[in-house]
Structure formats: C-alpha cells, structure tokens
Amino acid sequence: MRSFIAIVLGAAAAALFALSTSLQAIEARETPRAEALRVDLIERLLRRPRWLLGTAAGIAAWPLQAAALAFGSIALVQPTFGFGLVMLLVLAVFMLGERVGRRELAGVVAIVAAVGILGWAAPHTTGSFTHAGFVVVIAWVAVAALAPQALRLVNHRGGLATSIAAGVGWSAVGLATAAFDQDLSDRHWLLALAWAIGVGAASWGGLLSEMTSLQCWPATRAVPIAFSLEMVAPAAVAPAITHHGAGPAGGVPFALALLVACVGVALLGGSHKVTRSVSLTEP
Predict the structure, then answer these.
(1) Residue 283, in any domain of the structure
(2) Disulfide check for 85: which of 113, 154, 204, 268 has CB 3.0–4.6 Å away?
(3) What's the structural domain count of the chain?
C-alpha cells in the first residue's frame, strides 16, 4: 500500500513538473541566446506571467515529491517521473490536437510496465544513507549547483552539455529531498534545513541549465536526456549509497525495470507529438 501511495504521489509531482517545463520552455525559447547560462536569463523570464505560472507549478510539485519519498524509496519514486512525459502527451492531444501513434503508445506502456515492476522489485523505503552516500549526495548537489557557471567558464553552452547538466540538477534534487525526508523524520532539524537549502541550490542549477538547453536545442533532443538522468540516475545509485540493497533476485528485475523506463523515455521524449507541448515553435 505504501508503494502504491508513493507511485501516485510521484506521478502527481511528475505531472506538475511536466506542466512547469512546458510553460517555462515556451518562454525560454523566445529569449536571446547571449543570456544562456546567465542570471540575466532568469531575470528576463521572471517578467513573463506564463513562465511564473510554470514556476509555481514546479514549486507545488516539490512537496508532492517529498511526500512520495516519505512513502517509498528513491529507487521507486524517481522512475515515476516518466509519467511527466505521459502528461506532456496528454497536453499535446487535448491542447494541440495531436494523435497518439504506435511510438507514443509503446512509450506509455514501457513506462507503466517499468513502474509496475519497480512497485514489486524496488526497495519499499530509502532507508538511511551510508556515510559515503551522504558524501556522494553532497558532491552531487554541489556539481548541480555549480554546473551552469562551470559550463559558462569553459564556453560549453550547447544543448548536449546543458541537457546533461539539467538532468544532473534535477536528479540531485531527488537525492537531496530523500536525505531531507530522512532527517526530518529523525527530527534533525538543522540537517533537514541544510538539505532544504541543498534542494534549492540544485534546483537553481537544474532550472538555469534546463532553460538554456531548451533555448539552444530542439526539445526532441533535450527532453529525453534530462528526463532519463532525472529518472534513472538517483534510482541506479541508490543501492550503492543506502542500506536498502537492490531488491529481490540480486537486483536483476530492478535493473531491467530501469532499462525499460529508459526505453519509454526515449520513445516518448523523442516524439515530436510530445515535445510540441514543450515548445510550440517546433514543427
């Protein structure tokens, strides 16, 4: 029952995050390329009501993500974010009149099947992080927060680099949120506050990188990379940095489910029908 609740909450968070991405990306593509990876990009977007509405949706999604992680493990919750792509497909159908084809149906089936398998195979709770795990998460958050500045310094502002940075940023948010939940439940208030600040820092890096990637690259290429990293990376490393293990049968069903989730993301994220709801300027 707890796993089911975690899946429902994770899917709800994913839907809001997808709506957030859709609204923000439409505005991001209309901004000057010279502002890529700069604070100026966010300052300009803050003056646009539609982008602010998308930001509000993203902020509302985070408590749902935190609640999902309180009921289920990060290895289960993060892959449910594939339902965000399903949400984009729904937007494309109802708002843009797109028809669902075989590719999109296969993508939806793959994501639903993967999450269904994970409901059984993934550990039910994240459990406690190992000491090394805490170091990994702290380093991950630091990389996510500093990635935009680092990419700007080395002049890597293209779509591939920023899409990867966006995925790293949003996956860091998931890991830091799991650590936040753990310390909150243990009533370690200062540590919980520190993790909340880490969530904010990683979110900033992920947001700036994501807006730049959608500004510079087609959504059909940017979305699958960012979504795949956000879904799979935290789940894949969780058995190594927590005490919960990899699940039954030596973790084989768990690994196969993550692979199926990646296939679903590739099918849906690479579909022009889905990504039209992320960027109305693309054919």
Answers:
(1) no
(2) 268
(3) 1
